Amino acid sequence: MHEYTVNLHMHTTYSDGTGSHSDIANAAIKAGIDAVIVTDHNVWVQGVEGYFGDDQNKVLVLVGEEIHDQVRSPQKNHLLVFGVEKELEHLAADPQNLINAINKNDGLSFLAHPYDPESQTFGEENLSWVDWDIDNFTGIELWNSMSEFKSLLTSHLPAIFYAFNFKRVARGPFSQSISIWDRLLAKGKPVVAVGGSDAHNLLGKLGPISRNLFPYEWHFGAINTHILASAEFSGDPANDRTLVYQALRQGHCYLGYDLPASTKGFHFSAQTKKDSAIMGDTIQLKDSPTLQVKLPQTAEFHLLKDGKVIASYKNRETAAFHIDETGVYRVEVYINYKGRRRAWIFSNPIYVR
């Protein structure tokens, strides 16, 4: 498998962002990531996908969409749509109908910021997902950078502090989002988790104080989704686009907070005498699997089964765990950074049936 760093969920001047696709590409190249997926609100932008840069420094720019019912008040049910070569915004009022259309067009759908609390201080609404009578979506955006920032805006003083201290914002996915994910997984169907920056490159103002909240490049060096592609990128946009979406569809990916330290090289797999599996795969209990974890550096990490911690490790880089029960197994990794314990890596599950 070939690992690539993807930043997804961001906005340009086509909706409520301030940068162009070229601006995003240049920022991604500076941040050293491999691909971005731009998701403007309720508009599918055509003709901008492809590689930007040169042979030495380039990035794959893909275009999806963030669809929601603009008529609804308050706003809810934002859906990230990838890989659909047509506009589906007209279906926004009925999430299940929208998801069905995405599947019919071989696309992917992720529930954006499923838990997104309000900020009363700044009049920001709660944008959480509320219509749970849905099925057959690809996954959820477990960790959203701007939703987390919004949750810290409890008054003017912390707003100013965090606006000038981006490196202190991220702590980890909301516990409510993690609980949602675990409940969905408990229903017996794969649900792929991704991390999104929700980057807008906005200018925030509070009286005489103004601040960029936050540059695209900062976001691209922070919360990313690392994919394990089945083949090496060839440099052909259509081919590499397929590899990105295939990895996301299969759950061959993990969430990495790359600001404290690069998460590249994380491995979570299962081995038997007959078979092997990586994140997103299913393996059989009868074949006596052993789970294996390898980190890029020593850290605190936990192995979870069906949302419950079953093994914990500190100051370790590796671990192996023999499985004797069916269940959904995943890994959470934490690191100390800027005086606080922060989430570093969240794996997608391995399903033991």
- The N- to C-terminal Cα distance equals 23 Å
Biggest sheet record: 19 strands, mixed
Number of helical elements: 7
Count the beta strands. Answer: 21
Please indicate the percent range of residues in DSSP E strands (runs of 2 or more): 35-45%
CATH class of the largest domain: Alpha Beta
Main attributes?
353 residues, alpha+beta, TIM Barrel, Immunoglobulin-like, 2 domains, two-stranded antiparallel ribbon, 7 helices, 21 strands, globular
Q: Can you offer a commentary on this structure?
A:
With 353 residues, the protein is α+β, with helices and mostly antiparallel strands. It has two domains: 2-257, Alpha-Beta Barrel (TIM Barrel), CATH 3.20.20; 267-342, Immunoglobulin-like (Sandwich), CATH 2.60.40. Helices cover 19% and strands 38% of the residues. It contains seven helices and 21 strands. The chain has helices at residues 21-31, 95-104, 145-151, 156-163, 175-186, 216-220, 237-250, and strands at 2-10, 35-38, 50-53, 58-63, 65-67, 79-82, 108-111, 139-144, 192-199, 202-206, 209-213, 223-229, 253-257, 267-271, 276-278, 282-283, 290-305, 308-322, 327-337, 340-347, 350-352. The strands form two sheets. The protein has a 19-stranded mixed β-sheet that branches. Strands 10-11 form a two-stranded antiparallel sheet. The model has no long low-confidence stretch (mean pLDDT 96).
